[in-house]
Each structure stands twice: as structure tokens, then as C-alpha cells.
Automatic annotation (TrEMBL):
Protein's name in the database: ABM domain-containing protein
Lineage start: Bacteria, Bacillati, Actinomycetota, Actinomycetes, Propionibacteriales
InterPro entries xrefs: Dimeric_a/b-barrel
């Protein structure tokens, strides 16, 4: 089953983000998409340990399992540290409860 990008983002926001918010150390997320239907999800954590813990609890595997049918290519995972950031403070929709 393939779905359009806006539907995939809405599913992620409705089904995954509430679970992310329950993970200790979760600090935020960026969901990036392009017109060709590819994208990336960048999650932010208070510490590297919090990110590893969330990945080790099965949370990451559960998310992949839930959304595996909508991926156009196999998902990947990497760990990076923020070396520089300048993020917008206005014009970004606030998360809804």
C-alpha cells in the first residue's frame, strides 16, 4: 500500500509523535519531505543515552513495523550530533495536544 506524503506525515504525527513524547529524554522531531515522496525524520534527544534507550526498548522497531508498507525504499537509521543549528522560531505550526 503506497500513500501520499501528506497522509504519511499525518499518520506519523497522529500515531508516532504521541509515543515519542512518552519516551524519556525526547526533545523534538523534524519531518522532512520533498515533492518526489521521499523524506527523513530527525528526532532530538536530551542525551545520546536517551536516544539509545528509546531505540533499545523496541520503540523504533515497532514504528518501522507499523509503517513498513508505506516506505518506498528500505528505511535507514543513523546517529548524528548537532554540530550547528539555526531553527525558525516563527511560522512553524505548534504541536497539537
Amino acid at each position: 500500500m503506497r500513500i501520499d506524503t501528506s497522509t504519511a506525515v499525518r499518520l506519523y504525527e497522529d500515531e508516532v509523535v504521541p509515543e515519542l513524547r512518552r519516551q524519556p529524554g525526547y526533545a523534538g522531531v523534524l519531518v522532512l519531505a520533498n515533492p518526489e515522496g521521499t523524506g527523513a525524520v530527525v528526532t532530538f534527544w536530551d542525551t545520546a543515552e536517551a536516544a539509545e534507550t528509546a531505540g533499545g526498548t523496541g520503540f523504533y522497531a515497532e514504528v518501522l513495523e507499523k509503517f513498513t508498507t508505506i516506505f518506498r525504499s528500505p528505511p535507514g537509521r543513523g546517529r548524528y550530533e548537532v554540530a550547528f543549528a539555526e531553527l525558525p522560531t516563527a511560522g512553524v505550526p505548534a504541536p497539537h495536544p
